[in-house]
């Protein structure tokens, strides 16, 4: 398949997905084409600038958008400062990429004051982060408005690093996402890191997790020794932690998933078939994954969105107007 034809297929499929999922949601591709035509390019430039000095911005933005959408929908409530806000929840420790959002917001307020929401900036930035790490982009429906409520207690709706597949599926289903969406979106772990404390229990010297490749155990134990620093960071994708590709799924097949919640996607029959879809013919599996990831991101980014007169357009992303 030629590169030009491949790109046409990707764009066609992503346009169809974006258009279909935007119906009835109040968001649409090109929402700011008249009110702030430079909106997407300003966000892209802000993300690229921060990424060039700190590549961890990319997985940070992707994770932050996911965590935002799973709590009160995609309304940028994760960005609000203050005691008891989502930022204070344990699941949202070590948030990265906020500076890129703030940079973009400041520039947009100078050009189009009160027009572009923080929720849309976060959705666009997540897409741009994937592109900067060699993934493919997708068309992002915009038109979201920002929420005015942010509660750390509600972060329990986020899937955790040790949760069973059934529990993960239940949390995704509660947001209108299915098993394929789960496996596809968790594929975002192809970039980024996690702390030793979230998987150290799998490395027990006397009774290690049997789903871990025995040849991989010494490497993990050297990175996360039994009485070591639990905050030490380890790449979630063994082999290419800074590149958006399908090697994450190959790791699961080889027993080299870092988080037990990830590895179980291979050992559980209900999700294994979805993982296998991204492990087919070389080249085609990458195309398939990129198309499906874009589709799943559009679907996720429309969870409980606020549009029209609901919510507000924050002047500063860290506080309500």
UniProtKB/TrEMBL annotation:
Sites marked Transition state stabilizer: 63
Binding site for substrate: 159
Compartments it resides in: Secreted
Main location as per UniProt: secreted
UniProt-recorded Gene Ontology molecular function terms: heme binding; lactoperoxidase activity; metal ion binding
Active-site positions on this chain: 67
This protein's name: Peroxidase
Annotated source species: Rhododendron simsii (Sims's rhododendron)
